Amino acid sequence: MNPPWSTPANRGGPVVAVDGPAAAGKGTLARCLADALGLPYLDTGLLYRAVGRIALDAGRDPAQPAQDIAQALLAADLQRPDLRVAEVAQAASKVAAQPAVRAALVDTQRRFALDRGAVLDGRDIGTAIFPDADVKLFITASPATRAMRRFLQMGGDSTAPDCAARLHEMEAALRARDTADASRDVAPMRAAADAHVIETDTLSAQAVLAEALRIARARLAIIRA
Ligand code: DC
After folding, report:
1. pTM score, whole prediction
2. Is residue 2 assigned to a domain?
3. Is 221 within 8 Å of 37 (Cβ atoms)?
4. Same-domain check for residues 31 and 64
5. How far apart are CA 40 and CA 14, in angstroms?
6. Domain boundary at 93, 112, 131, which?
7. Which of 18, 29, 42, 44 to mutate to test ligand 1, by most ligand atoms within 8 A of the CB atom?
8. CATH code of residue 28
9. pLDDT tens per residue, range 151-185
10. Which of these three, 56, 77, 112, is where a domain ends?
């Protein structure tokens, strides 16, 4: 008899893919989903950020081949406290456009889900890493909404005199990263044809979680039936 979470790929649990652009709230959502479903969670952006960080630390241009770094990446590299800064986000986007870097990180992501299944968030989880994911979500919001959320997350004061200028700058950076992530040749960011797209502009984080959980539980019930 099949185990309760048997999937086409015979993993030990279901895979939930959470894709979408930067600052759409998919990290928070994916972590909460993983908690609620009792699954391990992987933020796959950290893989590309760690490769970018190591390249910068070595004085290398992140646009130059970096697959040697990706091949030698350690779990501890993902724990570094200096991965969530703008400079590293830009470097991550550049190394993520390199097919050889992406290829070097595929197995790590697939192995992560092998024993118990997982929730993974990124840009290509439902299209390239797990095209057979049990649940596929694509979380998005307008660049203006995402810039405002990021601004507030970073402790920004919406009454400060430079608020408009900073928001404008953040929105421009998000748009540039969206363009780079969506236009690269290999595994560009896009919603899988069978993904559930959730537009979060007018939704609270709790409402997004409730909707995502509703979709995930319905899909997983079908698989278990
Ligand atoms: O989600 P994030 O901002 O931490 O991602 C950092 C960069 O890595 C982003 O520019 C896109 C890239 N990335 C990717 O190409 N594929 C993934 N699965 C995750 C992130």
Report:
1. 0.92
2. no
3. no
4. no
5. 10
6. 112
7. 44
8. 3.40.50.300
9. 888 888 888 888 999 999 999 999 998 998 899 88
10. 112
